[in-house]
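Hello,

Our lab assistant flagged a job as stuck in the queue for most of the afternoon. It eventually completed. Since we weren't sure the result was trustworthy after the delay, we are filing this so someone can double-check. Below is the sequence as submitted and the structure that was eventually returned. Let us know if re-running is recommended.
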Amino acid sequence: MNQILEASKRISALVADAKQYSQLDRAPFQVANIHELLRSTLVMFADRLTKDGSKDGSNSNHPVITLVKDFDRSLPEIPCYPGDLNQVWTNIIDNAIAAMRDTGGTLTVRTCRDGENMARVEICDTGPGVPEDVREHIFEPFFTTKPFGEGTGLGLDLAFNIVVKKHRGDLRVESVPGDTRFIVLLPLQAPPAAELDLPE
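-- returned structure --
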């Protein structure tokens, strides 16, 4: 009975995380806790990550990718499209993990304030880095460095459109071997209603 009860609790937690990630039953534009959005996205990658060096999941024959979270809990909730931001985190984290899949490494997700008006999210990996000639095209639609059949080349283009065009923020990449950072800047205040892509 105890095992059934424990399994039921785990299933309930997974369903709750899936609802948080997909933003079911939520308004498309709302004030949201950015750390809860990141957490619910990271749950979706749990089988590919470790935390604090402890192995968890079924990928024990694969190189270890350690997750480090460095969250500034003083950040206020931000006005945003939470479901869309979860797509941004998903695309960037998936690419970071792919960059380290052969060697292992560390995935760091960091938040802080950037100036007075912006929240900053950094998703960093210790992979081989993104060459300069690739960085010039990285946000272009259909551009991919993944093997044929593995990537559509639309993930980072979608992320760019969500962050820059939909949220009036900024998305950039800085990269040297061993330290690649995707930096997302999001306004702490909502833009004027006329600028928002709200449904009719």
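-- support follow-up --
The delay was a queue issue, not a problem with the job. The result is valid. The helical segments are 2-22, 34-43, 82-100, 132-135, 155-166. The beta strands are 30-32, 50-51, 65-70, 78-80, 105-114, 118-125, 170-176, 179-187.
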